[in-house]
Amino acid sequence: MKHTFIRALLVCYLLVTASAQNPGDGYVNFIRQVQLAEGGIGTVWNMQVPPDGQVFSPLAINPYGARFEVHTVLEDSLVGFLLDSKYVASYIPVAEVMIYSEDPHNIIPRTRADRPFNVQITTNGLRNGVDDPEPSKAVKILHHVQAYGAGSDGTGINRTQATLLNQGFINSNGEQTLTYAITQVSGADRAKVRGEERFSVFSIADYQAPESQLDAQFIQIWPVADGTISGITTGETIRFAAPAVTFAVNDVYPEARVYAQIYEGNSALGTEGYIIPGSARIYNESIPQTYLEVVEGWDRVITGDGIWTMELLTSTPFGIDRLAHVTFNVDRTITVNGTVTTIE
Amino acid sequence: MKRHLAIIALCSTLAASAQQPGKKPVYRDAATHDQIVRIVKVASQHNPMENLLTSEGEDPSIVNQPTDIISSSDIISFNGLTTLVPKRAILQTPANFQDRINNHQPGNRIVNWVDFMTRNRGWITSVEVTREQAEGHAPIARELADQLAKSRNLIVAAYQAGPISVLPLKEPVLSESDTPATAPEP
To answer: Does residue B85 sit within a domain?
Structure first.
């Protein structure tokens, strides 16, 4: 029997860096080529690839196509995660999904619950001939949303539990940009939602293969930070040493800076003041953080009596957000009321 | 049309208000639930996917999921290290190595195949196979099969140094022209 393999080597490549974890981060990556066959899965091959860059697969793809999968496994426990998969076959179109937000972080796209983002879908290889097979004429776009649990960073979530919000077909080659003014991850407090929105492109099913993922990308949505200043209240007057103040911040955006500043006068958003010593922190974390900071002796930046305002701020890729502020009086002038009398 | 322009203007405003290098940062009070709900209300009047052709049906991301890598692998462990190979990639397991297969010990470090092989060449032999052999369209060469039968090592099939599953040899389907002629009846 003559095997019906595609004789021409179908070269395909994987963009490994897009979603794989870096070695040394506590993960080990596995890239698999799964040959689809009549009735299901055929041969499975674990490719040996460098940690980043592109690699051509030498394993020729048969007529049913192949699925390329990027898995990562925790280095210290046998827990695996599927990071990405792409289906490749002879007449199946190629698609790419890219998501852009105001945050330039480029490993996993991310934004905040109050910010917009764009989705760019690029399709190539779509045909429109009368005799062309149906899967070559269109691809299917899916939009899923999935909320994370309170305090969760999304690790290990079951993506089959995501909600399918919308789906549609694309039947022409080129770029399509979808603009989202704000996240559609819902929650009782919209400022505090955390979750992800996923955009996937699937092939159309035919007798050779079911609908299979051509590309997918997700953007993580993180909550808006909130904070409080305690230890001093609006309207309070400082006469001697300033009290210790406590800055409490919830949900600091990944890699954001948090600091407190003080300036003379009433509250005026946008004023640049003196940064309170000991209050500044940078969070080089990939998920939101919560913290408490007690600062004493901060009044050395107060240069005179009068009305002063203290603000707690966070600097993010979206701008500088004011989380809390208090306006208080400083009155350290000692007034001596006395009289001088003489007696003859 | 006006609705679309309103959305675009809203997004442009939001984008323009973000921090840009070299420009004075934008200050604002942290957004509240009520402020966000107002934006959601405007945004919900416009579905960014409304211009696409309508599609319905089952969610393929649920019905056609790739399998979990752990359950679709054989796990080889030894001396504090563990690695994964596709099921059916292990061609031969001597009895004295049975306890090293699918017996991951807590505390073992997961490594890739190359790192694992480098440290375990003494008891694992990696055998290169062709795609035809892996897909069950060609048998393993007799000489190699004889050699493997004599080996006391764990034998793992590989393609270009990566472990690969080897499907059972498929029986050839004979066409009419290949069918041996039957003897004519006397």
So the answer is: yes
- Residue pLDDT, tens place only, B117-138: 999 999 999 999 999 999 999 9
Give me the DSSP letters along A2-13. -----SS----E
Q: In chain B, which residues have their Cβ closer than 8 Å to the Cβ of A255?
A: none
Domain count, chain B: 1
Residue B62 located in a structural domain? no
> In this complex, is the C-beta atom of A86 within 8 Å of any C-beta atom belonging to chain B?
no
CA distance B186 to chain A (A): 32
* CATH architecture of the domain covering A226-330: Sandwich (2.60)
Asked if ipTM goes beyond 0.85, one says no
Establish if A196 touches chain B: CB-CB under 8 angstroms: no
- Which of B14, B134, B175 is nearest residue A43 as measured by Cβ atoms? B134
Q: Which pLDDT score, from 0 to 100, does residue B138 have?
A: 93
| Structural domain range at position B150 | 73-163
Q: Which residue among A76, A80, A323 places its CB closest to the CB of B30?
A: A323
Distance between CA atoms of residues B154 and B90, nearest Å: 7
A178 and chain B: CB distance < 8 Å anywhere? Answer: yes
State whether B53 and A141 contact (CB < 8 Å).
no
Asked if residue B56 belongs to a domain, the reply is no
C-alpha distance from A339 to closest chain B C-alpha (Å)? 51
For chain A, what are the domain ranges? 2-222, 226-330
Angstrom distance (rounded) from CA A201 to CA A204: 10
Cα distance between residue B68 and residue B25, in whole Å: 45
Positions of E strands within B2-60: 27-29, 53-54
Asked if residue B15 belongs to a domain, the reply is no
